[in-house]
Amino acid sequence: MSPRRAAELYRAPFPLYTVRLHPRRAIAITAGGGGAAKTGIPNGVHFLQLEQVGGQLSASLLHSHDTETRATMTMALADDIIAAGQNADCHILRFSLQPPPGRSVAGRDAGGEKGPRKRKGPSPAAQGDMQNQTNEVTVESLHSVRTDFSPDALQKAVRFNADCSLLVTGGADGFLRLWEFPSMKKMLEFKAHDGEIEDIALGPDNKVVTAGRDFQCCVWQRDQLVTGLCWNENLPGIPDKAYRYQACRFGAVEDDTGALRLYTVQVPHKRERRPPPCYLTKWDGRSFLPLLTRPCGSEVVSCLSVSDSGTFLGLGTVTGSVAIHIAFSLQRLYYVKEAHAIVVTDVAFVPESQRGRELLAGNEAALLSVAVDSRCKLHLLPGRRSLPVWLLLLLCAGLIVATILLLQIAFPGFL
To answer: Is the distance from CB of 123 to CB of 61 less than 8 angstroms?
Structure first.
């Protein structure tokens, strides 16, 4: 595996905890904060414009939305709606693009020519251009509901279902809550785990998968337990409570429309002097039977993402490293050790929509990672080179001719 290097795309003035990319617009949304009331470090949601500049993917700040005393720890995106987990609450925001007079959303002036955009390099001084960019995005607060009631209340996961008619939240109190969207009327709540819910994934028929710190990963149909997952059932040498589930995500299956795979990450429950490996498991998305389990390194995994096509898995670790794995085989394809100075809090692939492919510019995949070090970094997988079919046929024909000539030389009269 050749050495890799992550490119710094953007640096925020506060720790970053989550990142999402809009599938139709070249916009990345990052969020986080530092607890402004006690530390003086601001809290906010940043909107970044992504574009190709000189053959490289670049990010410029469009708008900074101030979240006052609330740091955003989790986030889900449904078109122009953001569901942001801030402390014990879920805040529903709507954003819209409002281009300056004489310039369209895409950055072109009324005459069709490319207008100037002030571009920000990867430094905290990026705030300087903000005043000229804030009118490009407006943010409206629609709802706020409490989603966690533990003593140290914290919403840890939020997801929309496929048609965005349902929002699911989970947090430190172990309760799963289902909300009708967009009214945010609570439909259901029940105790899903003894302890914190680490992650949530929504699958077919609105089945919900929850990963908890109680060593359980459960599949629910509303409040009815469908099944509990057992990743180590074919690995008898691993005790049940040696590992806990850290993350869960559904992903598409290449060349199999409608099929789904579930991916989970298992991390050691206790840290040891010689750390044991973490594991990735691939499951059938309907039967929830394990298909494949592989170790994914000894660095504790902190977050997981799946590319739109289901081809790649992105991983971040508590030590700042970032990896990309092939979803089919779970083999590691890309790795940057300590790409960040501290825990990677979220990773997200550039969407494989038409706009996303323009941003990829020939690369097979692009992954964004954010961390507590306030940085957003870019990880690229170059497109795999392939030979044209006509050239392959020509090489095969040449090989056949050469073989016949060698046989004729070795065995005169062969033909």
So the answer is: no
State the Cα–Cα distance between residues 330 and 277, nearest whole angstrom: 14
- Cα 287–Cα 290–Cα 295 angle in degrees, nearest 5: 155
The pair of structure tokens assigned to 52 is 């190709």
**Quick one: DSSP state of residue 115?**
P
CA angle 329, 332, 333 (to 5 degrees): 105
In DSSP terms, which residues pair with 367 in a beta bridge? 349, 379
User: How much is the pTM?
Assistant: 0.84
Q: In the structure encoding, which two tokens stand for residue 343, read together?
A: 């825990």
Per-position pLDDT tens, the chain of length 415 = 344 678 999 999 999 999 999 999 999 999 999 876 667 789 999 999 999 988 899 999 999 999 999 999 999 999 999 999 999 999 999 999 876 665 554 444 444 444 444 444 444 434 334 334 444 799 999 999 999 999 999 999 999 999 999 999 999 999 999 999 999 999 999 999 999 999 999 998 899 999 999 999 999 999 999 999 999 988 888 988 899 999 999 999 988 888 999 999 999 998 777 889 999 999 999 999 999 999 999 999 999 999 999 999 999 999 999 999 999 999 999 999 999 999 999 999 999 999 999 999 889 999 999 999 999 999 999 986 544 556 667 777 788 877 777 766 777 765 6
Give the containing element (helix H, strand E) for 377: strand 375-381
Residue 395 has what DSSP assignment?
H
Bond preceding residue 182 cis, omega within 30 of 0: yes
Identify each DSSP E strand in 172-300 by its residue range: 175-180, 185-191, 197-202, 208-212, 217-221, 224-228, 243-252, 260-268, 279-284, 290-295
Q: Are 69 and 51 in contact (CB under 8 A)?
A: no
Tracing tokens 């085989």 back to the chain, one arrives at: 329
Token pair listed for 197: 């819910």
Q: DSSP characters for 323-339?
A: EEEETTT--EEEEETTS
